[in-house]
Amino acid sequence: MSDQTAPVSLEEFNHRLAEISETMPKRLRQCAEFVAQNTDRIAVSTVAELSIGAGVQPSAFMRFCQLMGFSGFSEMQKMFRETYAQKWPDYATRLENLRATGDDSPSALLAEFVEAGRLSLENLASTVDLKTLEKAVDVLAAAPMIHVVGFRRAFPVASYLSYAFEKMDIAAVLHDGVGNLNPRHAIRTGDVVIAITFAPYSQETIDLAAYAHDIGSQVVAISDALSGPMRKTDALMLSVSEVDVGAFRALSATISLAIALAVSVGAKRDKLAYGK
Amino acid sequence: MSDQTAPVSLEEFNHRLAEISETMPKRLRQCAEFVAQNTDRIAVSTVAELSIGAGVQPSAFMRFCQLMGFSGFSEMQKMFRETYAQKWPDYATRLENLRATGDDSPSALLAEFVEAGRLSLENLASTVDLKTLEKAVDVLAAAPMIHVVGFRRAFPVASYLSYAFEKMDIAAVLHDGVGNLNPRHAIRTGDVVIAITFAPYSQETIDLAAYAHDIGSQVVAISDALSGPMRKTDALMLSVSEVDVGAFRALSATISLAIALAVSVGAKRDKLAYGK
DNA sequence: TATAAAACAGAATAAATATTCCATTCATGG
DNA sequence: CCATGAATGGAATATTTATTCTGTTTTATA
């Protein structure tokens, strides 16, 4: 049993887990990994189920609980059940009420988009590729100039990125297609291009990304699938799957990812500047 | 025990509950009401706890479970635990993990924006003024031409609205400020203006809305507060409060509201067209 | 390689929890 | 107002689930 006091929140729990899982013996580390991957199940499972999941004996799982600072499994589960209860406000009910009025009434549609946005965000949180995201931030933070391109439904994302960069005094150009000028000559070797495009992919965006790649510029792509036409450009692919409502999507996840990317770049630049 | 088969989803469960709770004896109705109010707790509670909550004996609660079509409490709880697992695709955990790495790491920022977006959406669902929303839809559906205006951080919203209108073959103009032309002469009496602006309010947007109001056009405003400079224009005010992350916001709620508005207008126009 | 300490699996036990049963109370129709 | 059946409360029981214990295996150390 551990001499430390038991975690009382998910934060503390995760912190503790990260802290000690390094030094755990084999079976207990199995438990730690399984728990880290399936935290959500703890509240509603038995020791037997969890230990099978982790591939260990129930007794091993018990030792794990004790190492984490709890007196046993029950106490640990209690914590998870309590924190779970807080999570549900009456949001679900509100949504029901919005929906209640009819199929294509404004409020029903709003409810759909709100729920789609929420699902997309939750999905984003669990599927985003952190490695690639960090790499993209590094690349962008070092770029002498950032080119942002995205048309049609990707355009709002592109314009918001530009706004964010501008606000943080980061050199960036939004390629907005005004005047049908050929924008590629503005891109110099070493510049970085952020290309945003969703199926059906717009040709201008693909062309610009391909050109950038040809002249040796790095491309960061925000798209709705890992494959797709951006593959060829060796882009750092950030994929987002948005939940559709009919023929439209709310862009919540995409915009969140974009703004997080932009702000991260800003933060990184500050750090580099102070580092010098 | 009921002769009917047991519900296998939350929907079925709720339906059944509504159906039979009318005709239940006193104690069992207490159970029904408590369960309806605390659906979320079932997965993580014991019969004893729930029956105390409902103010009945455990045996009464058992009878309730059987009336609902389950063999007993365990089976009912099983259903809730299973649907819970889907609803909770360890989103909370992932978010924790994202956050765990550090304060301004990309993943931590992303987690912040995702959470901010989620909160904003939930907030939107419970605070939006449905009356005004429906009125706005009516007005826009009848407009010969829709003008969309919004600059700086409102511009992504404005551009997405235009995209949606275009896709639905609805006549709309995006006033994007290119060329610094004075756009007001494009607005005719009877046209409707959608003005999007957040504090600090951009002068161009306010001016355009004021002009539109002067010539007798209706204004629909999407903004972050009910008061603010749009008040004077007699606008239909749709207010959205977004949760900020530092100096930025993810726009999730605003965009969701905007797209719901646009699609509603599209649906309404279809209805009017078929009606004729 | 020998030895001690730690980790482990599996079975045995303890505790918690669900479920049933039955005596009592309450409501309903004659 | 009584008789009958439904509804109820509470305790007894059955079942599930957590926890501990012990002999064995693995691992680290000298």
From TrEMBL, chains A, B:
Keywords: DNA-binding, Membrane, Transcription, Transcription regulation, Transmembrane, Transmembrane helix. Coiled coil: none annotated. The chain crosses the membrane at residues 247-267. It comes from the Bacteria. InterPro entries: Homeodomain-like_sf, HTH_RpiR, RpiR-like, RpiR-like_SIS, SIS_dom, SIS_dom_sf, WH-like_DNA-bd_sf. CDD domains: SIS_RpiR (cd05013). This is RpiR family transcriptional regulator. It comes from Thalassospira lohafexi.
